[in-house]
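Posted in: Protein Modeling Q&A

I'm a second-year student putting together a small comparison for a lab meeting, and my supervisor asked me to include a predicted structure for Bestrophin homolog. I've never done this before, so apologies if this is the wrong subforum. The sequence is pasted below exactly as I got it from our records. If anyone can share the structure token output, I'd also love a short note on what stands out.
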Amino acid sequence: MVVRYTNKIANTKGFGSFTRLLAKWKGSVYKLVWRDVLVYLLLYYLFSFIYRFALDDVQKRVFEKVSLHCSHFRTLIPISFVLGFYVSLIVSRWWGMYLSMPWPDTASILLSTHFHGTDARSRMMRCTVIRYLNLGILMTFCMIAPGVKAIYPGLEHFVEAGYLTESEKETLDRLERKSSQHKTYLPFLWACKVVERGRREGKVKDEISQKSLTDEILRLRGCCGELLGWDDYNIPLVYTQVVTIAVYSFFLFSVLGEQFLDPAQNYPNNLIDLYVPIFSLLQFVFYIGWLKVAESLINPFGEDEHDFEFTALIGRHLEMSYMLGDCGEAGFPTMVSEAYWDATLAAQNEASQFNQPGFSLANQFAVDSNSVA
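Accepted answer (user: helix_wrangler)
Welcome! Here is the predicted structure, written out as tokens:
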């Protein structure tokens, strides 16, 4: 379920418009990082307790040297560069996935416009094309989204839901025995064949209309293919491992390197002694939160709060495509003279005066001057 919040900040009035979002828990950074923060604090206070109460003076000096060593060399990890580039790549990938989402609205509008006829045969052919488009999209979603696959685990469930007929299921089963490749392209092929049949029967008036419908059907097939490609070809695992190791090793060393040491020893940058590592904690939340963003967006095909709503999208596509593609003559309003009809006629008459032969602005100015005199 996508967390929607931009309507809360539509009007940016006053100071700190984003501050009203900080109290939200669902989909927040707090919900993502609180477990990591808890582990970090437990480890930090464990070493702090050992340093303050469990070690003698000689052992404290050794601990302080180890702490200063970790504080110095942990800065050599290029965490900002590695993590920033990785998150940028993940966000670009996520946006590409969204742009690849198939929307059958345009195909349904073209189908209603170019596939003529109000008889039962014409309606059946239009509805069949719409059903095939939704079937192809649903089969694609089942291959990439575990939540959709749980609802439609097999072809028999497609038949029960009305997306597939028994004869079509037998065709898919027969092809499945011949080839192990996915069959999501078949419904789009069937849809193109129905459009071609409609052209032969005169329900699609010309080749241009047929081409418009076929091109849009193939564009939807291309979108489904892109989604399958995003799901099959991931960011190299080694890159994800490098980023994860870099972030967690950085803060593992910071558990020792960020300890507050005895100010009496006059170590550099250790002038005060505090019990709460405020700035270290903020740094931890920022970097771990950054990593959690990448973890949330790297695969938006699941059922997390930041993932795409495939289940709701299936119902939306089915309802919208049938509403647009098979609305019939009753779905079109009656044309009337609207409120701007007279204003449009007046503007046209005024414009026609300027197009009359012999008309000039100088003559019009002379006529207006004489009328004033």
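A couple of things worth pointing out for your meeting: The longest helix spans residues 29-54. The two ends are 75 Å apart (CA to CA).
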